[in-house]
Amino acid sequence: MKYSVKIGVSFLVLLGVGVIGPSQAGDQPGVTEVDGVTILDTSKVSTGALTPQEMADAQAWPLPTIDTPPTTLADHLLSGESGRQLNPGFEPGSPGSGEELANEPLPPSSQLSQDDAEVDPNAYGSSLHPYTTMRVNAFKNLPARFYPFRAAGKLYFKIGSSTYVCSGSLIKAGVVVTAAHCVCEYGSGNFYSDWEFVPAQYQGNTPYGTWTAKSVSVRASYIQGTEPCISGVVCENDVAILVLREKGPPGSKFYAGDKIGWLGYGWDGYGFTPDGLTLVNQLGYPSSHDSGLIMQRTDSQGFVDASLYDNTVWGGRQTSGSSGGPEIVNLGIRGQLTTPLGSDEQPNTVIGVTSWGYTDANVKQQGASPFTSTNVVPLVSGACSNYPDACD
């Protein structure tokens, strides 16, 4: 295991960041706990908006990894294990108005040309789990500017004086979902700070602006380190919710999703067959691809792994920076049909966020805590109760 409470604490100490134990959870200013959800009012810990230079210099947040032998897709199919078919539910998304906001380009880094050679897929790794990872691009065109892709983006945050970047996506007009490990360390009791969400960022350009977070929440069991996890990496609830601040003049304020739209989200097995299979469409900004400057898409068969706390596992090669990016079912715009829809057909539905991978880069599998009625549902409900305008 390379990224766990043990290694993670050492990493943060090297950065000069204090790490506290579970017994001290709640000591941080602005933190409250309600019904098993730990909430941070960011105004209590924020040092102000990130500067363009801080964002340009941000480092990709390491993807947590484990050393355990992987379960292959064939292993799952032969095991006869069932999926998490509880009582699936979902909330639909919206395409928004589509209005672009003032573009706020970041300082240039290593800019990439649209004429660069295509990134070839590495069909499968040692796990024998097929996948394809490619840019969210068409040749000399930017599909990432269009719905549903523009609802995903980069998520910046600070630990001490250093800036890092994960991925995330809108699931309400003013609500972003990401991984809990992008807002706090498992069992640390403290949140990081200064989150900013940049939808559809492309080579430093920000066509829909940057959006600061005014509230961050996770399951209390995650930040306190009391929930079941493998090495503090593969957990039941590696899920976090951020509520963004509005923009605009008084009386005409709006959230990011009002313009660019938001994805739906599903829980308790939504999108899975009775034998625990689904097709995962993963979006994110891994540093391993185009230096994290362009959104990437991975498509792969996903399955429920009972040995990993029912986490969803799929084939993929996204690395640092992809954490918190959405796992989506039914990605895209549905055509006019003359045939019946299948089950769990709601388009553009997030069922998890990128949580972890394997230390051995040759495995080429990733995983995510499942969205359930005990994590994403109360997290979103709490955010919408405190900030109802963000969920209209």
What is the ordering of alpha helices and beta strands?
Answer: HEEHEEHEEEEEEEHEEEHEEEEEEEEH
Number of strands: 22
Helix/sheet category = mainly beta
List segments where confidence is low: pLDDT < 50 over at least 5 consecutive residues: 1-25
H/I helix tally: 6
Termini distance?
42 Å
Number of domains: 1
Description:
The protein has 392 residues and is mainly beta. The protein is 11% helix and 29% strand. It contains 6 helices and 22 strands. Strand 21 and strand 22 form a beta hairpin. The longest helix is centred in the C-terminal third of the chain and has 11 residues, at 376-386. Residues 1-25 have low confidence and may be disordered.
Quick summary of this structure?
The protein is mainly beta.
Name some characteristics of this structure.
392 residues, mainly beta, Thrombin, subunit H, eleven-stranded mixed β-sheet, six-stranded antiparallel β-barrel
Question: How would you summarize the topology of this molecule?
Answer:
Elements: H1 5-14, E1 31-34, E2 37-41, H2 52-56, E3 59-60, E4 65-66, H3 73-79, E5 89-91, E6 131-135, E7 152-159, E8 162-172, E9 175-178, E10 193-199, E11 211-219, H4 220-223, E12 229-230, E13 234-235, E14 240-244, H5 256-260, E15 264-267, E16 277-284, E17 296-305, E18 311-315, E19 326-329, E20 349-353, E21 356-358, E22 365-368, H6 376-386
Parallel strand pairs: 3-8, 4-21, 15-20
Antiparallel strand pairs: 1-2, 2-11, 5-15, 6-17, 7-8, 7-10, 8-9, 9-14, 10-11, 11-14, 12-13, 16-17, 16-19, 17-18, 18-22, 19-20, 21-22
